[in-house]
């Protein structure tokens, strides 16, 4: 096939052979947006603008408030460096290490666009990237999130930062009262909405078309895409969705803002618990003022992907809250009720994705399948001699990521939308002795074609071929709502309760085929639907 005849992509060559310390950037282009004029940089016919404020710094009195429009500036603001990633404790083994020092002042956006688009007269499709990190880590600065490969193919690429941890997801009775009839608690999601509104107001200045916006996210970013699809407050902000390992079942669910049930912990109660741990009592304005005066490291509390706090103390809500305004319900509930926006959706997971086994024995594990327990044993452990950890991990990843992606694709198809389901199974050559499959988040540098930044000197021709193939699928989807295009293996739209999947294979290939996990996923789906009926 044509894509196998190419030795290395342009991005791979550039990253490998530009010598350290040699500047390749041309004089900076200028763009005027609604808050002032920006000066960016140009490299290889791609113009980039980084660290653009899309909202006022959420510090001081603006901590735990909806994002406010950025202030207007005079003169020309230099936009050649990333702004701070949002406040967090970096995670040592993060697949996308940050490129900045985290801080509370972090609400900035970045744009990559063809340099020729700045002359005006073009309306290019736009993709907006939402990073993952469990809502406690992540940022827009990692090298693997560079948008140049999209821009080189006439797509305007936007990324931005949103608040994390207790800065982004926090409730308290005083905050609820202060918000009145406006959203509360989900400040990180409010930042995402504000960034999409900024895109609507300003992206035309970069050559982008505000009527052609795809939102694309991985892990917590993929979950965010689903939340934005389900929210009543995002109408008209985007027209296509790309969900990478974003779940879709209630296993990743929201805590209610308030609760009269003593058996159900509310997000407000969690906020009161945190306040009490800081020596702050009461539920009125004085308590809120004291909370806003806390040093950032006290609010952070060491939370990251490796540590979510003492579960017995319940001092962090662990992500989005059902506040009844921005987040009205769990996303699977919204799908079933017909409340989720139906649009072209590309969704999938990796072949060795994450999951969190809960059972301690095989008996306990298969008992979770209820009346299908014996069938599940035969499907997941046909000879009965697989190590427990291996079987439990497969069930866990099927339940958390792989089947929920299929579920969302099926619901979109059932509602009449175009759904494109994939399974990413490619493993970089340098990692094949370590990984039995493609781990969580390893699809990102391939869909972005930033494999040179990820693998450096270990990059192989097969890795580059795979990135070229998978990135072209992503670009086609952003442009048309359909990943298919000239020179690419056919990708069939997913059918409701179908047994097929587009396999992005370990040999840098792609093919629509029967899902090798089809029997497993049918059992997982049946168990999930029984749980829904029991609620």
UniProtKB/TrEMBL annotation:
GO MF terms held by the record: cholinesterase activity
Alphabetized Gene3D superfamilies for the sequence: alpha/beta hydrolase
Pfam families: COesterase
Catalytic EC class: hydrolase
UniProt signal peptide: 1-25
Domain Carboxylesterase type B: 29-363, 391-499
Keywords: Hydrolase, Signal
EC number, as in UniProt: 3.1.1.-
Keyword Magnesium in annotation: no
Domain of life: Bacteria
Family statement: Belongs to the type-B carboxylesterase/lipase family.
Matching PANTHER family: CARBOXYLESTERASE
Designated name of the protein: Carboxylic ester hydrolase
Source organism of this protein record: Stakelama pacifica
